[in-house]
Amino acid sequence: MLVFFALFSFVLAQRVVELAIARRNARRMTAKGAVEVGHAHYRYLVALHVCFFAALMTEVLVLGRKPPQWWMAPAAAFLIAQGLRYWCMTSLGHFWNTRIFVLPGANAIRRGPYRFFRHPNYLAVVTELLCIPLLFGAWITAAVISIVNLYLLSVRIQAEEAALAEATDYGEVFRSSP
């Protein structure tokens, strides 16, 4: 149980720090003329992440879930996702945010993991929301949160790509990508 509370606290603290970074980056971006898009779906993403923590805590503590024998697999995937998340954040620099900010005329980011595919940060989030519950045997949380998250990300990615294609060179850069 100590491991659960330690990881739970770590991930929760991590999210709080990331929100502070996102707020700072939002101020920098808007000062440069960036505009925010995708307001409508953002509140649902926030609600999903709040529900994630509540569901995980409930399923582990109330339903008494225990780590499976193969706990090392989701633990390893979680650690890889952490590395990917921070690689994304450092690659995007002040462009990284939990919201969608678009700076008209900016060039698409093609460094770090963005050299290989378009949305590596979302891959990290999908992996974390699946693997953290699986690490502790919280099957219901893993399934429900992952399904809702995939739907919300499909909405978010459409909004993000449309805004980037309209205001930046994103469409040109990624049209020629494999």
TrEMBL record:
Transmembrane stretches, start-end: 46-63, 122-152
Keyword Membrane tagged: yes
Keywords: Membrane, Transmembrane, Transmembrane helix
Major localization listed first in the record, in broad terms: membrane
Topology term for the membrane: Multi-pass membrane protein
Localization in the cell: Membrane
Domain of life: Bacteria
Family annotation (Pfam families): ICMT
GO molecular function (one): protein C-terminal S-isoprenylcysteine carboxyl O-methyltransferase activity
The name this protein goes by in its record: Isoprenylcysteine carboxyl methyltransferase
Species of provenance: Heliobacterium modesticaldum (strain ATCC 51547 / Ice1)
